[in-house]
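Instructor's aside before we start: the two examples that follow are unrelated to each other. I chose them only because their records fit on one page, so don't look for a connection. First example below.
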Amino acid sequence: MWVLSASGCRWLGAVGALAVAVGGWAAGTLPVRGGWGLWEPRGSALTAAGAVLAYLGLTLLVGAWWRHGVLLGRGLGDARGGVVGTLACWTAPLLLAPPLYSADVYSYIAQGAMVLEGHDVYGGGPSVLGPDELGADAAASVGGNWTDTPAPYGPVFLLLAAAVVKVTGGAIVPSVLGMRLIALAALALIVWAVRGLGGGPGGRAGALWLAALNPLLLIHVVGGMHNDGLMIGLLLGGVLLATRGRWVLGSVLVGLAVMIKSPAAVALLFIGVMIARRDGGVRGLAKGLVLPGVVAGAVAAGATVLAGTGFGWLRTQSVAGSIHTALSVTSDLGLGLGLLLGDDPAPVKGVVQTAGLVVAVAVILVLAWRAWRGLLDPVLGLGLSLVALVALSPMVQPWYVLWGTAVVAAAAWRSRAGQVLAVVSAALVYETAPSGRTPWFGFVVAGVVLVAGLVWARREPWAGGTSEGAAPVGAGR
């Protein structure tokens, strides 16, 4: 059947993306005010219809993406061509849509306005903006948990947000579209870096399928404009340059990625591993352990001074952990144990969350050691490290899974890890509603998709991939 071919998948996915966008005009994360009559509540009946349309479209998009991946996994040649064209077809319908699946973009706009208005973004939240100040409409639309929360982002991202607010005057619609342009630039950077890294066995088409064509990325980076996309793009760009021997410039890009979101710093360890393996000996090891961090640290310090926002980002990295998210295993476990052991679960929850981070660090160090010994591709090791960090983090959002997924895709998309991450991605798209809320049925649907996908992956493993313990891909990198 044509619809099951690569060409059919392209147009089926495009129809799905269009349905998500159209549904989002009624059921998306609409602003409280300032929507210019375009992005406004349409009544409960139309909102419900929009939500149904968006869910149906999302299912079409996921189905088309999954079928395309199956074709690639089976090595069918017609699926390998035109992945970038398919990406364009799936992205285009989302460009003019309102914010989808998250209200975070309103926080970004409000924080950019805070910079311009002279407020301390690391000392308070968007609620400090007065009604006559830039970004007041965006601040009114910020989700409740984040209204009084200081920015956990680095000054580079805040400067980008401030630039958007300055150009648009802080008006909601043009500011959102300006932030979407940044998201598109991030997507282009991801495509460039993934194509350069090659994707391991199976080639670039499969790597782009998992990293960039991924519906989880499309709805949360393009639709929701999460700055994780920019962090991932800069991180991958830095890693690509490091694999080509240009580790100084690569460390600069990773330093910029850290100034978007701090977890990108994990990449510096694996760039160091590449340097140590290339140069050899104690001198190479010392160089790898120290110099990437020095370069990135200089970038971070320089960016902070030039931005004029201060070094408050160093103390706000843990603010997100204070907000409970159901996807965090350590937070759920800590909360459960705390409720069993006493009236106040907070102390026990904090201990379990810290223990999770300690285990994550240990896993990362083991993976780095294996990469240094030549038992694991450093790029794949980085991807697995980011997956471990997210899995054991005190706060987990669905789009955090993209950190490691994009890197694993760029190194070995047909590995067992790549296949499992594809299943997880397909499941997590359902966790959040177009409105940004997390309804109970979203977790149910995600659970069903996850179980069905894992059963499929066990019965039909992709041939030709590498597992974590196999001979490394690109061992000389």
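Example two begins here.
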Amino acid sequence: MTGKSELEPGSVVRRRMEARVRKYRGKLYVAVQDQALELDEIAEAIFRRINGTSTLREIGASLAEEYGIPADVALADVTDFVEQLRGHGVVESGA
């Protein structure tokens, strides 16, 4: 077993303490060790909602409302992006 479970709509993730966040020239960057990720507007909106208590479903619903997109599309985008963040060591599954 890898220790990383599949993300589901009810999954909760939190930012890892090692993740550093910087705003530079209007762009948000997230770094862990020697990797830095530049976040676009949607990625930043998702990242800012990762608080260790909200589920992926709740984050998706919030984005759907803010951007006027279907909730299922928003949830799929959130899940895909959070999986990428987890792969880079930026976030981890919550309790």
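The mean pLDDT is 92.
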